[in-house]
Structure formats: C-alpha cells, structure tokens
Amino acid sequence: MRVLFITLLITFQTFAQNDSKTSFQKGRYELAVSYYKKADFVKAIDLFSIASKIKPETEIGQEAAKKVDTLKEILRKDILEKAVGTWKDAGDKPVWSSDAVNTADEKTFDETIEITQTQILFSQIDKKSHAKKLIKTENIVYNDTNNSGSLYSEIVLSDGSIWNCMINEKGDILRVINVAKKTENGIEKIQTNNLEHYFMKI
C-alpha cells in the first residue's frame, strides 16, 4: 500500500510539473506573439527562444523554434543593412570619452573596417600619405550554436573569437564585444574582462 501511495505521489508531482511547464511555455509564446505583432522583433525572438526550449517536443515548442529561425533572418538582414559601409576604429572606449580621442591622436594611422553583404575588410590608412593597406579579410559567419548569448548578432571570426555586434539608433556607432571563443571542445563563453571596440561610420 505504501509503495502504491509513493508511486501515485510521484505520478501526481510529475503531472503537476509538466502542467506548470506547459502553462509557462504557453504564456511565453503568447507574449512573444504580442511583441511580434508590434514588430518588436528583438523581444519577440528572445521569448520565442525560451518557449521553444521549455518543451521542444510540443506543437508550441516546434512553432516557437520556427519563429526563432524566421526572426533571425529578419534581424540579421536589418543589422547588416545598417552595418554595410566603412567604419573607423575609435578604440576600446566609448567614442565620446576623452580617452578614446587621446588614443586616436597618438596613432600615425587610422584603422578601418569595410563591411559588405558577405565580408569584413580590415585596413590601415596612413594619416599623412592617406595610403590604404589591406590587413585581412573575414567572411561574415554567424554564431548559430544553441548556447549563443545573442540569437542573431554574434559573428565568428577565423581565429575562433566570437563578437556580439550592436549599432546605435542613429546608425553611426558600432560596438563589438568579444563574448566567446570557438574551440575544438565547443564554445567557451567569456564572462569577465571582455575585449570591446567602438567604430564610427565614415
């Protein structure tokens, strides 16, 4: 009798947990849909992602996963359209800080990146002669791993470094933060002392 009681208790607890997960998943999904309808795709993709992972085997979980894939394409297209062009490296301090200005003045050359639809070209421009030297070229490769911090704006460079890219509302400041490293063992997240750079559109 005691064994039967314990079995029933475990069954009821499992059912309650599943019911709670189902309810939470539905709530996240419905909230995501509301943001989606308002065209707030950044909040929507985060909520769809949460909903897809709670119970991925359910219809809601599968539908949420599809929405994540759709929104990735939309958001990546949007940020890439803003990013295409030439950007001047302003250093590792915000462009409005005095430290950034002083560091830039000390250099004999400017560092720039030119972003196209498929590549990032890193160059140096001599301040006196204005001669331009191409340093390296990187293909635009997105980080699509499941443990990605950002669902759409992380770029993987050829050295394995992973950078989260953000552009301000005016579209003239690009900020990149080194958030992880891709190794043979997978993705290693960088939690502290993250390298970062600011760029000004020119």
Arithmetic mean pLDDT: 87
Question: What fraction of residues sit in β-strands?
Answer: 25-35%
How many strand elements? Answer: 9
Q: How many structural units, i.e. domains?
A: 2
Number of helices: 4
Which stretches of 5+ consecutive residues score pLDDT under 50?
Answer: none
Please report the first level of CATH classification, the CATH class of the largest domain: Mainly Beta
Characterize the biggest β-sheet.
9 strands, antiparallel
Describe the structure.
The protein has 202 residues and is of the alpha+beta class. It has two domains: 2-80, Methane Monooxygenase Hydroxylase, Chain G, domain 1 (Up-down Bundle), CATH 1.20.58; 84-201, Lipocalin. It is 42% helix and 30% strand. The protein has four helices and nine strands. The chain has helices at 2-37, 41-54, 59-83, 98-106, and strands spanning 85-91, 109-115, 119-126, 132-139, 154-156, 161-167, 173-183, 186-189, 196-201. Strands 1, 2, 3, 4, 5, 6, 7, 8 and 9 form a nine-stranded antiparallel β-sheet that branches. It is elongated, with a radius of gyration of 23 Å. TPR repeats lie at residues 25-58. InterPro entries: TPR_rpt. This is Tetratricopeptide repeat protein.
Keywords:
alpha+beta; 9 strands; Lipocalin; 2 domains; Methane Monooxygenase Hydroxylase, Chain G, domain 1; 9-stranded antiparallel sheet; TPR repeat; 202 residues; 4 helices; 42% helix
